[in-house]
Amino acid sequence: MTFGHENVERPTFYTVREAARIMRCNPSTLYRAIRENGFPAVRVRARYVVPAAAVDRLAAAASESGGCVDVARLAADHRAAAEVARLSGGAR
């Protein structure tokens, strides 16, 4: 199948709107989760972008668990691990 592009590469980051479309949710829901530190994103000035790897990990976690994945819980666990690493001098 040809898409009119020679080298179609998957992006490293998605816009919030693109990520929301992929995850089949409303962009405002995703923006809210990002602002509440409930979903991983990178803020560049006033704009957020979502790492494609975060969307992939979320899909993989849902597939592997066979159930509901709480993204806020995943984000909280990640923040806690980062804080432990920071307090212990970077050892993870």
UniProtKB/TrEMBL annotation:
GO terms for molecular function: DNA binding. It comes from the Bacteria. Residues 13-61 form the Helix-turn-helix domain. It holds the Pfam family HTH_17. This is Excisionase family DNA binding protein.
